[in-house]
Amino acid sequence: MPKGRIIKALSGFYYVQYEGGVIQCRGRGVFRQRKITPLVGDFVEFEYGDKKEGYILSIEERENQLTRPPIANIDQAIIVTSVKEPGLSLNLLDKFLVLVESKAITPLLFFTKMDLLAVDEAERIKEKLDYYKKIGYSVEFLSTKDEEVERQLSDYLNDKVSVFAGQSGVGKTSLLNKIMPSLQLETDNISESLGRGKHTTRHVELIAFENGLIADTPGFSALDFKEIELEELPGCFPDFVELEDQCKFRGCMHIKEPKCAVKDAIANGEILEERYQNYLQFAEEIKNRKPRY
I want to staple 243 with a disulfide (CB 3.0 to 4.6 A). Which of 167, 194, 214, 261 is the partner? Predict the structure, then answer.
């Protein structure tokens, strides 16, 4: 049986890319009965009588998946954060990082609109964001006038399946349009009163770029911790994971436990205090969420 990857889902049809090209498929009725929905990014086995339409027979086990956008087997998420209009929020950045880490997706951090800052302010922000570089994240600073964005991005995007994520109005869609002008994704300017932008993509599709694939719709339209258990949260902070073996208690939550290496590192200025405060806030959010039934 031929195998391929779903690169687009639209109106109940799945477009599967395989070595013979792209074929339009339907899902078998058994998927509906089992409440399984094929996702863009899925590796599938399919059959076809002629090359006009086929049927998806089985879906390989997924490495990971997102709910919004509905997409599977992602290698990396490019988290786009602006430093101005809207201003830099480490709380939002850490929230995105937790969601990406919880799905075993590699995050890349792109900070946009650097040229809108005064020189001293830009230096101060870069200094603070160096912490994220120090704990192992890839960090890039972009300006609104960057003509070389495509070159800067191409090394990251080569041979990878990437999704762009970030708060509305930070420049995700503009960035996608810049590197792939053929997309012509619609953007709305930020509404002054709401402080947020609007995205109008109707379906999810993987577009070929630099021997890799990019999801043409920004990810994470809802930022919540519905799928993360409290015990999983420390594992979503690599700077905490590095120290956990030095904590007195196994499974230390780094909140009230004595002899906690993470709290010691904060006291010594080795962990960003603001990041730890975000961690405490996220832990509270998870504790206080309504139970799922």
Answer: 261
Helix axes 273-288 and 90-102, enclosed angle (nearest 10): 60
Count how many residues are written for the chain: 293
Give yes or no on whether 3-61 and 66-215 have one common fold: no
pLDDT digits (tens, 9 = 90+) for 229-271: 999 999 999 999 999 999 999 999 999 999 999 999 999 999 9
CATH class of the domain at 230-288: mainly alpha
| pLDDT > 90? residue 33 | no
Q: Which CATH class is domain 3-61?
A: mainly beta
Name the 3-class secondary structure at 279: helix
Angle at Cα 171 formed by Cα 14 and Cα 225, nearest 5°? 65
Provide the 10 A C-beta neighbour count for residue 135. Answer: 15
Cis, bond preceding 38 (omega within 30 deg of 0): no
At 71-86, the pLDDT tens digits run 999 999 999 888 988 8
- What are the DSSP calls for 191-241, one per residue? BTTTTB--B---SEEEEEETTEEEESS-B-SS---TT--GGGGGGG-HHHH
Q: Are 17 and 208 spatial neighbours (Cβ–Cβ below 8 Å)?
A: no
In this structure, CATH architecture of domain 66-215: 3-Layer(aba) Sandwich (3.40)
Q: What's CA 63's distance to the chain center, in Å?
A: 14
pLDDT, mean over the chain: 86
